[in-house]
């Protein structure tokens, strides 16, 4: 599969020029997929307040600001768009907890190895999957994320990509990740009247040995968001002693 067409349209979301033009036109703030209020239970469960966090593809979202208000004290925000970064630097110049840098997630060599306790990605991998040379771009980005995480660190990916299109990228042994999956409905989704919830969204979703959802698994919301929590195991840890997916870290 050359491109992940499940969430792409005619725009080239992997192109800096596209994003520069969009931020010039729109201004303001916009959070892709989910606001922090919905993601907070997962972020707080896996990323301690004392963590040094990298927000990849920060755009003009309020996510980092909301995390600071919740007690996080060190968040580095990067984006390929210089327009977005200039805008956010000015907006948050009096927030010492927030730093901003124009950077391509496929080459984050500015940062040394094991620089961060947590990396949060809300739609950035999805953007790359809509660009040219998508598998190469994905491998470059995920390799950099793995390199930048400290042992025990967390890469939290919020995406439209279900396991059939994401696990082949995330489960490469070189990343040394143990992966747990959650699925949450899109904002504003309402269950049909009279229906009862099938499960708690805070419960990990079981995955088959092939990295797929069970055949009988039912998505309450067809446009759900998938949260992959990827924990970087210590190099001395034998991954075979740990289930790849499906259990709480």
Describe the structure.
The chain has a seven-stranded mixed sheet. The radius of gyration is 18 Å and the shape is globular. With 249 residues, it is an alpha/beta fold. The protein has seven helices and seven strands, in the order ααβαβαββααβαββ. The chain has helices at residues 16-26, 36-46, 63-69, 82-91, 124-129, 134-148, 163-170, and strands spanning 53-56, 75-79, 98-102, 116-122, 149-159, 177-184, 225-232. Helix 3 links the parallel strand 1 and strand 2.
What features would you highlight for this structure?
249 residues; 19% strand; disordered C terminus; 7 strands; alpha/beta
Secondary-structure-based class equals: alpha/beta
Tell me about the largest β-sheet: 7 strands, mixed
Could you say which overall geometry the principal axes of the C-alpha atoms support?
globular
**Uncertain segments of ≥5 residues (pLDDT<50)?**
237-249
Q: Biggest sheet, strands in spatial order?
A: 3-2-1-4-5-7-6
Helical content stands at 25-40%
Write the layout of secondary structure elements.
Elements: H1 16-26, H2 36-46, E1 53-56, H3 63-69, E2 75-79, H4 82-91, E3 98-102, E4 116-122, H5 124-129, H6 134-148, E5 149-159, H7 163-170, E6 177-184, E7 225-232
Parallel strand pairs: 1-2, 1-4, 2-3, 4-5
Antiparallel strand pairs: 5-7, 6-7
Quick rundown:
With 249 residues, the protein is of the alpha/beta class. It has seven helices and seven strands, in the order ααβαβαββααβαββ.
